[in-house]
């Protein structure tokens, strides 16, 4: 492969340098993933031994499933999906109002993001106090509620961006065609924004899935999510590195699926409304 | 059937900017009216106010004498075709065309029949199950038209529907719209900034500038009798030439353009007498400057400083030899030898077709003293 204007010896040297740089960068990104996978699939006793795959064993996964991990996995799924489902209707309607009617003005729209600008540590104690007064600590619903609140501002902004990309002509056309404003939103705008809603939903899911601090403070052993459960494997008897690695591999799986999904939808979302 | 009346309609925005200023206009039932003007002149705003998509700040809009100013768009029974076509991207062509009927609660079978009928009329039958994204620009534009036609509205409001098409398709669609207007017999208000569309499609043109009406009339009548310099310049391409001059009494009247450049005014133009001894703007269309002499034409020399050979005609931009400080003139020459750059041509101004304007107000100075229609 060669780029126009980069022929000749000098061009080849530049190419080689470029590829070398890219290979190093790829390795830097991929090595941790490769190594975690490797540690997960070799017996615990060989976690630190040399060689890529001295022996393959499911020992680490068995150890993981013998403990509370399956429960935590389910908790994470419930909390992450639940928070998105809870926040999305508000994000969609608020984002639409912001985009189409300029509701709340510039200052209002920005102040929605205020909680995103604070360090999470500043929010975790008030959140704890509120949940305790509602008897919702150590409860999946409580954690879902908090994640929904944390996700709402940024989901709203993402939705606002998508709605801005949908031409107002579409609604006008629907309204002259006989639809009410609400029908125009429901029948025309919402389906057009669906790729955006899906993309925002997946982003919200990933954020909740990875969240550690709030889960640590607000959950108990029964309601721990994956990040908390994995942190729990660093015991006083040392870190059970093989089991942690197995947990990480399983925790990353939904994210890989989600990122493929989101890629497709974001690209589709960018081109979908553009009927000109 | 719909007669659309605008009674001192204004649109003022929250910021205080005036979009449309006290427009009064009467569109007859079955008329094809063109709203023409440069971008930002308020033509699309006017259209949207008629459709009910934009708030009316003051004034009234009547359809067949019924005040619809406060009515929702859906209650006006008008169809709008947007510049962007505004096709619903998630629906098939069939669903797009049938949407308005569905919203009005028509039975599915009846919708199907009406959609098929409209699709046949517009040559869209093979594409009924496609989504808009899988259609060409021309096909999308037809779907947008189909969506409007199928509802059998009282009137059609078209907001620059041809501006996204290429030149050839635009010419075809122009003819098609005129044909549709004839066969449907409905009122059409067509917004455009394209003067070819304005001249060829409408029964009347309404020319807007900065939210005000400059002139309303039949295309050829407006072309022949522009009310002011703006209309004279806007409604033709290349636009009318303007030359500053003084009108002096001289065995009748004469236009004094520069020392040694004095053109006699045709005796019939007695209306110009009242501008005697004052500064005027002489308006001469490029097609009223001829390469050949004839009675009543005034010869003068121009140096060609730009030449656009278009095939059927050649547009020469020329500087007047005797008065190089005057604005350069556009001259429209027919088919024939194409002049070279720098060449001096003898051309002949037909002053019987010339217009005079007041350079201050821009208003036309009528040719005839009694203000008779020419």
Derived from helix and strand composition plus strand pairing, the structural class of chain A reads mainly alpha
How do the strands line up in the largest sheet of chain A? 1-2
- Give the neighbour order of strands across the main sheet of chain B: 6-7-8-3-9-10
- How far apart the termini of chain B lie comes to 33 Å
Report on the biggest sheet of chain B.
6 strands, mixed
Q: What are the secondary-structure elements of chain A, in order, as H or E? A: HHHHHHHHHHHEEH
Count of separate structural domains of chain B: 2
Q: Which segments of chain A are poorly predicted (pLDDT under 50) over 5 or more consecutive residues?
A: 272-276
CATH superfamily of the largest domain in chain A, by name, is MetI-like
What fraction of residues of chain B sit in β-strands? Answer: 25-35%
Mean of the pLDDT scores of chain A? 88
- Report the major sheet of chain A: 2 strands, antiparallel
Task: Tell me what you see in this structure.
The complex is a heterodimer of chains A (276) and B (374). Chain A has 276 residues and is an all-alpha fold. Chain A folds into 2 domains: 8-59, no CATH class; 61-272, MetI-like fold, CATH 1.10.3720. Chain A is built from 12 helices and 2 strands. Chain A has a two-stranded antiparallel sheet with strand order 1-2. In chain A, helix 3 (69-101) packs antiparallel against helix 9 (181-210) and helix 7 packs across helix 9. The longest helix of chain A has 34 residues, at 8-41. Chain A is globular. The two termini of chain A are 36 Å apart. The model of chain A is unreliable at 272-276 (pLDDT under 50). Chain B has 374 residues and is of the alpha+beta class. Chain B has 2 domains: 4-229, Rossmann fold (3-Layer(aba) Sandwich), CATH 3.40.50.300; 234-365, Nucleic acid-binding proteins (OB fold (Dihydrolipoamide Acetyltransferase, E2P)). Chain B is 23% helix and 33% strand. Chain B contains 8 helices and 21 strands. Chain B has helices at residues 43-51, 93-103, 108-122, 137-149, 167-184, 195-201, 219-224, 229-234, and strands at residues 4-12, 18-27, 32-36, 58-63, 66-67, 78-81, 155-159, 187-192, 204-209, 212-217, 241-249, 253-258, 261-264, 278-284, 289-290, 297-309, 314-320, 329-333, 344-350, 355-357, 364-365. Chain B starts with a strand and ends in a 9-residue tail after the last strand. The mean pLDDT of chain B is 92. Classes of the chains: A mainly alpha (276), B alpha+beta (374).
